[in-house]
Amino acid sequence: MPIYEYICPKCHAKFEQLRPLSCCEEDAECPRCKAPSGRAVSKFVSRSKSDFSMLDHMPSGSGGSSCSSCSSTNCSTCG
What is the pTM of this model? Predict the structure, then answer.
């Protein structure tokens, strides 16, 4: 079940609810004042394949590479 975000029009509380897809268009009751509340526009993060592949080439800690057999600070020099 997805988590949906809501904003109460009466008390302006922001809250989340875990609801089935079949209820995604229905208002939710505000936990603070019990008013019917509509869904908010949710923020999300999108990552591309290249974002994750860069993690393999980033040095760990301060200086040195993530390779245990290499002392270079530049991963492009590793073979």
Answer: 0.54
List of long-range contacts for 12-19, beta carbons under 8 Å, 24+ apart: 13/37, 14/40
Q: Token pair for residue 36?
A: 């019917």
The pLDDT tens digits of the residues spanning 66-75 come to: 555 666 666 6
Q: Which two tokens stand for residue 25?
A: 């268009």
The three state secondary structure string of the chain is CCEEEEECCCCCCEEEEECCHHHCCCCEECCCCCCEEEECCCCCCCCCHHHHHHHCCCCCCCCCCCCCCCCCCCHHHCC
